[in-house]
Sequence to fold (115 residues):
Amino acid sequence: MNRLYSVGGTFHFDDGLHARVPGPNQQAAARAFVEGMRLLPDGIRPVPVRDEGPVASFDPKTVRSVHAAGGRGPGVGGGARCQRRAAIGWRAGWRVVRVTADRPGVRVWELSAQK
Fold:
């Protein structure tokens, strides 16, 4: 979400407050944070899309929220807390090019605006 909306992100952890080397759980959380920051493909500089963005609808039983961004070139869409078979309706003129990330609860798609 930080990269999708072009805002910074900071990873906070308890051991860091006390200048200790993080334990295994906090190391795993740090790795997940870094991986999450890298889920969007390199080279995409997203600009949040509003109103007439690519998402027409989604089934809240299969996905909690959908966020999309576009710019010059391909767009991206991401589902938060989504199931593998997330039911998302894309607006006319948009299509999924490929799934760029598929993690438990999170899916990221590369989108294309059809001409």
